[in-house]
Structures are given as structure tokens and as C-alpha cells.
Amino acid sequence: MTIFNPPKASVTAWKTSLVGIGLAMLIMSLPAFAELGGDEASVQADQLHMQAVRRISSAAAYSVHEIQVPTGTLVREYVSPAGKVFGVAWEGPALPDLRQLLGPYFGRLEQARNNRRGRGPLIVHEPGVVVHSGGHMRAFVGNAYIPDMVPIGVGVESIR
Amino acid sequence: MRSVAILLLGSAMLTVAGCGGHTSNNGSNSGSNSGSIPTSGANVQPIVVNSGPLGNYADGVFTSVTICVPGTSNCQIISGVLVDTGSYGLRLLSSAVSLSLPQQTNVTGTPVAECAEFSDGVTWGPVKTADIKLASEQASAVPLQIIGDPNFSSVPSICSSKHGGPMDDLNSLDANGILGVGPFRQDCGGACTLPLAAGNPGFYYLCPSSTCTQTQQPVSQQVQNPVWLFPQDNTGVIVALPTVPPGGAPSVNGSMIFGIDTQSNNALGAAKVFTLNSSGNFTTVYPASGGKSYSSSFIDSGSNGIFFLDSTTTAIPVCGSNASGFYCPSSTQNLSATQQGANGTSNTVNFSVANAMTLFNSNNFAFNDLGGPNANTFDWGLPFFFGRNVFNAIESQPTSAGPGPFWAY
């Protein structure tokens, strides 16, 4: 297994050179979530007890760990060249285990709900972390990222 | 005396708001919408947008639901129930229900409970059975969820790991219950009949003791959207709300009309039909001209604003902690987006986003210009409904435009 780790200083150059080459895909049978802000190594250490398929796509500025959760939901984890999980995203019929996925930021959800006026998608928008939990019953969609960890040149809209 | 003073004050504000001389941007380009709202009929249920049971809800549409012990005239009216086209099935706070409703059990007599999921949290509690009456319609022996039941106080860790502690009281739910009347029949469907760890979302639990474990749940035993179980007028729901002026109104009365193409007051007519994918979603293109496509878009009366994209993409600033979760532009933004059904129908919708903090600091509770950020998607919440009669056709139910699920307006 090879995770593409370009030198941080030349992210833009790598990105340019990779245009047209496409994404390298690897399929693994290891089920795992890494928590937001954690090390890439935690993808291995922090395994959930489920039979999920993980697919890793490597692009210039980051690699994506795509995890098909047995509840039918697709989780994507975005790992920076520095080896940090800087973003996560989910889409599917059930919410993922957000305690696992958001790690130390999980408590912000309940806090945001308590502060929110009325019902609707839940947003955490702090300097240290951004979380969007949206969608509707039977079709959830959401993402979370740590602004300071997002590699230079990567738009947060790509965390999806 | 005090209530008279408040009433006078309220009507004075309404008058001022109504004479503001502004032009509403909401409701334009809605095409076929007639604008007339049926207010009487055996299939017409009154709804109201107001401050809700807690007195501080913004853009919440509420109604009263009558529940009865199945097959009896032992009934109770529950007020302050949120009308939610983004979910399916009735959920009521245990603290609001005084009736003793029968507990659902599996074939071996073990009680069934549910961890139902919403974008802003979960609800936990037993599945019980009731007759549900809305307008003059009745659905009999319908599975529903009781939230915050003290006899089911031990929340499974799988459930509380989804989104934090459950919404289990008036303060956390902001309503006495949620009436899910969206375009699906059940809150899960066929997926919950699959083996666990093989595609089953795992919403349902068996509770032989205080410890509950996930279980497969037959479709007919799942919590049901009551509308499709009515003997008639069961094809869908029309949510009809009048326009509100910029800056909002203290409260707005409207109607929820049951059935599509079943009575003279619920004909689809020339309304534009937007069919949905298997997730209940359609596509929104934003900006309307030359924008990007967002395929996980939906219409949801239970979302209290139009929630779209993120602050980085829209360049609209989010509010501070006093209006967390909403947009706070320095001046009202007039925007447009195009809705596209799976069937190719498209329509451009104009909408506005005002400063949520300013709106919340007014004495109004119904707003057509409340918005906020979201996750790469478009959630057309309650502001979309003002000034429209919005048809929501339930899956597999027949209409003149074919079976649901679809939206039309």
C-alpha cells in the first residue's frame, strides 16, 4: 500500500503534474475510522468492529480513505501530506458513528444543538473546527474539517 | 387585561410589517401556484407558524394531533407538534402523552424501541401503537415512537454515539412531537429488514430488559407516516402557507390538506412535478445561472430556514453564537437557484437571506428570509413554503402525475 505524500512545499507543483494521471485506487479489507484531527496511523489503530471496505485514493494534496459502513453509509476521510486527518464527510441512509469520526470534537454537536434556535441542520462553526450535519431522515449528508490542517490550495468544498 | 394588551400589540406589529412598502422576493417564479388556500373540508388540518410550545421557535410550523388507544374513544389531543416533511412517522414526547398506549412487541413478546435519526440529533424510545386522527381522517393502529419514556431511560451507546444525547424533552426537541409526513411511507423501509451489519441502518432495538440490542424490523411494524394509512385522501399532503413580508410576521395560519387528486380541494392541476431519486432528493443548481449542481437537495418543512452550501462557497458570513447555525449578511441577499426533478422538470426559485440576528431580535417568528450554511447541499426549509401550495406525494401512492415520491408546486 502506498499513500502519496508529496513534500508540503511543492503541493501545487505536484497537483499540476498529476493532472491527467487520475487517482490511484487501492482496495483494502481493513475496516477503520480515524478520528478528525488524528494521525493517519489512527486509521489502523482506531478500527471499528465492523466489516467495512476501505478504498484509498491518493491525489496530490491529500489522500482519501473511503469507507463503506455496513449501515449503508459512505464515509470519506481526508488525510494531509503531513499525515493528519484534516477532514471527514459522510452520506447515506444512517448517520455514521460520529463519536468515533469526530473524536474530541463530538461534544460540539450537542453544544450546538443546545445553542440552536429551532430545528434544522446542525452547524458548528468555530476557528478550530467546522461541522455541517445535514440531510433528512433516510438520507443524511455531512462533513467536518479542521481549517488549520487543510493543506494549502485545497478548497473545503472538496471535503464531501 | 394583559393578554388583551399583547393581542393589540401583536396586531399593531402585523399592520406595521404589512405596510412596510417592501416587495417580497419569495414566491416569485413559482409558476402554477394558485395562491388560494383551502381552509375548510374533511381533509383540511389547520397549521400555524408561531413561536411554538417553548415560545422562542423561529420558522416552526405546528399542528395538533389526536391520538387514541386503538379501537377506542379514549383519546388525547397533543398540540405543538412540528409538521415535518423531512421525516416519516409520528413521534411524541412521553411527557406530553397521558394515554396508556399499547407497547409494540416482536413475535416472542419482547418490547421494541427505536433510535430515530435526524440531522440535528436522535430520538430514543419505545414503539407504541395508536389511532391517529388529523382533520376528519383517521389512520388505525399505527406504530409511532414515544420519546423520553422513563421506562426506557437506558440509551444504547450505539444510539448516543450517533449525535450526542437524545432529544428527549421539550427543551431539546423544541416541540411536543414531530409529525413526519414526507414522501416515504416508513422511517426506514426495506433496509431495516436486512441482516444487521449487511446494509441495515439499525434504527430498531429489542429491549428484553433495560439493555437493548439492535434488531431487524418488518416494514409493517416500522413507525409509519400516518397519511398513507388513511382509508382515503392518502396519496400525499399539501402544505399551504400564505406569503409573509420581509422581516417576518408574529404568526401565520395555513392548512395541511390530505390527499392529492382525491378531492376538489387537492387537485394537482398545472403544478410542476419534480420527481425524486431513491433517497427522496432532487438537484439544485446554484447560482441559477451557470452554477454547480447539488444532487442531495430536498424540501423540508421541518428545517427552519433555507440551508445551503457553506459560508466559503456562498461568501455569506455566518452569525455569531447568538444565532449559531444561520447566515448573518450585513444586508439582505437576493439569490436564485434552479430546482431540477429527476424527470427533467426545472424551475428557478428566487429567495432572500436576511441577517438572522436582526430577525431574531424582532418580535416576529415567521420569516421568509432565514437561511444558513449546510453540507454541500440545498435544504429548502420552511421559507420556501410561504406563498406556495406545496404538494408532497408519498411513494407508490397513485396520482394523476403518476405514483410518488415527488414534489409539486
Question: If you had to describe this structure to a student in words, what would you say it looks like?
Answer:
The complex is a heterodimer of chains A (160) and B (409). With 160 residues, chain A is an alpha+beta fold. Chain A has helices spanning 11-18, 41-45, 98-102, 107-115, and strands at 24-28, 53-58, 63-68, 74-79, 85-92, 122-125, 130-136, 139-145. In chain A, strands 1-2-3-4-5-8-7-6 form an eight-stranded antiparallel sheet. The longest helix of chain A is centred in the last third of the chain and has 9 residues, at 107-115. Chain B is 9% helix and 33% strand. In chain B, a hairpin with a 6-residue loop joins strand 2 and strand 3. Chain B is globular. Residues 1-34 of chain B have low confidence and may be disordered. Chains A and B meet through helix 3, helix 4, strand 6, strand 7 and strand 8 of A and strand 5, helix 2 and helix 4 of B.
| Total of DSSP H or I helical runs spanning 4+ residues of chain A | 4
Strand content of chain A: 25-35%
Q: Give me the secondary-structure category of chain A.
A: alpha+beta
Over all CA atoms, what is the radius of gyration of chain A?
Answer: 16 Å
Radius of gyration of chain B: 21 Å
- State the fourth-level CATH superfamily of the domain at 44-229 in chain B: Acid Proteases
Order of helical and strand elements of chain B: HEEEEEEEHHEEEEEEEEEHEEHEEEE
- Total strand segments of chain B: 22
As an assembly, this protein is: heterodimer
Query: Are there runs of chain A of 5+ residues with pLDDT below 50, and where?
Result: 1-31, 45-51
Please supply descriptive tags for the structure shown above:
heterodimer, A: 160 residues, alpha+beta, eight-stranded antiparallel β-sheet, 4 helices, 8 strands, 17% helix, globular, B: 409 residues, mainly beta, Cathepsin D, subunit A, domain 1, seven-stranded mixed β-sheet, six-stranded mixed beta barrel, 5 helices, disordered N terminus
